[in-house]
Design brief:
Oligomer: single chain
CATH topology of the largest domain: Immunoglobulin-like
Number of strands: 7
Order of helices and strands: HHEEEEEEE
Largest sheet: 4 strands, antiparallel
Helix content: 10-25%
Shape: elongated
Strand content: 35-45%
Number of helices: 2
CATH architecture of the largest domain: Sandwich
């Protein structure tokens, strides 16, 4: 008897991805991370450079035409389509890289200015530089002598 791991697809996979994202935001790592490491796609790094946030997302095989990026408040959404690899005459024996549509919502530490975002896709890595909203930047207060 051969055991096969159940493969989620369609709406059930989307539900599982969203549940993983929600659980992951609370620091528990998501449902799948205990089994295989983070299965969230795309994998991201987020850091603060003072006046802007930077985000790197691994999106191998995805072209700039396949990507949609949205910013609202302190949320960044990366949506896209990862193409099915070509297998002209062969039959897959193992297929671990996911394909199809994906969406990842990333909660940033503060609000961003959606009019000042730069996006660069190079060698499968999407790099975003997001200017912080004026309200999120520290304000220097002048002290008056009286």
């Amino acid at each position: 008897m051969t055991l096969e791991r159940y493969r989620f697809s369609g709406p059930l996979q989307q539900f599982r991805n969203e549940l993983d994202r929600l659980v992951g935001e609370f620091g528990f790592g998501g449902l799948r991370s205990a089994r295989t490491g983070s299965d969230l796609f795309p994998a991201v790094n987020v850091w603060d450079e003072g006046e802007r946030y930077c985000v790197e997302a691994e999106v191998p095989g995805v072209t700039k035409e396949d990507l949609e990026i949205y910013a609202l408040g302190n949320e960044l959404t990366i949506k896209g389509t990862r193409p099915q690899p070509a297998s002209e005459n062969g039959v897959f024996h193992r297929q671990e890289r996911g394909t199809g549509e994906f969406a990842r919502v990333i909660a940033l530490p503060g609000e961003v200015d959606p009019d000042h975002i730069d996006a660069l896709l190079q060698e499968g890595v999407l790099t975003l530089r997001l200017a912080k909203a004026a309200a999120a930047l520290p304000k220097k207060i002048q002290v008056k002598a009286g």
